[in-house]
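Hi R.,

Here's the chain you asked about this morning:
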Amino acid sequence: MNPARRTRSAARRVLAALAGVALAAVALAGCGTQQGAAGPRFALSANPSPVWQPVGIQVLALPPGQEVTIRASLVPGGLWSSQAVYAVPGDGVVDLTRDVPLEAPFTGADGMGLFWTMRSSTGEAATSDVTWGGSSFSIDLQASVGGRRVAETRVQRTGLSVAAPSRAVFDDGITGDYFQPTSSAEGVRPGIIVFDGTDPGEPTGVLVSATLAAFGFPTLDLSTYGSAGQLDPVRSLPAERFLSAVSWLRAQPGVDDQRIFTFGASRGAQLALWAASAYPGTVYGAIAPGGTTGLICPSPVPSPAVTVGGAWVPCTTGTHDPAPAAVLDVQRIPGPVVLGCAGRDEELGNGCAWLAAAARKRPLREGDAYLIAPGATHLFYLPPYTPLLLPAGSAAQPTERAREALWADVMAALTAPSSVPGH
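And the predicted structure, written out as tokens:
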């Protein structure tokens, strides 16, 4: 059976839970409904709502049998916008999670479609992880029937900088940023080390780390190759740096020292898998989308990807051949493993071959997820629900769908019952 299909049930349960909570909140509380209104009006599942989670949106008391145009525009300025047209059903309620639009820049029912399809009127690309994640922002929603505005509301989205503040770390030979959850969850939670700086120019590390912390997981965003201005001349990871990071993270309040995960995307994926497979008594699980499942020597000049005590760890030259001997010993990882590949990956064209090779070495276990996203592009591992670095054209929706599915897999892995005795 296809490994992606065999793991979709867990992801669907998480996605359904998020959507269900949003719908239930709308139905039971009417949160965000215009107070005292009797005519057409918006109802939101929560307002404000966190940027890293979906928000349920309904329009109530619309005239049945008519068409309603719902427009979303970013505040201030309204330069970023999107809109869709819906047929109003007999009960007069249009539910964006449930209803399929007549016209829209996306296909099918999509409760967050108006958010991630927003485009700039100036042609500007959505490249800022501060604008589309770090900072809080507002989106104005307007509903029009027959060219006349009948309802409007403002959706406030809480940014990651509010929910997941960070502090710089310069201890024990490591540098990075520590994101400590502000949520009041009781007990200890899995701690996560994110390998940052492996893909220059991509906003992966900080954005991923802040998102993980916003979900309640203490996260160390590790500067893989040294601090800014003092980068190692060779892109090699000394194992001692990683082990120091693990020791530091384990000592932080609220961290379950028996459940440390590694997270690496793209070129960082191999490091996340290597660390977890090399130190199974220290690292519990690994999250490694969008990269190889073998350790690749840096190019163009061959050099070690990882060193232990100054000695090279064997690595493969080039990504072209995912041979069994090149695949890391992922079967040694005691806890969940989350992998993912994109069928239209413009940076790693055979990423799904690398995933398949790892799946043969490690058949799916409880908590594992191997996501295969045929129509998605390379940055499918970024958090969902915004237009951040989404590709243009037909690849946008598959990439967004992959983001939603991957992050559901990540949450399922992090919240799965522990296999550690006594936990």
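The first strand starts at residue 41 and ends at 44.

Let me know if you need anything else.
M.
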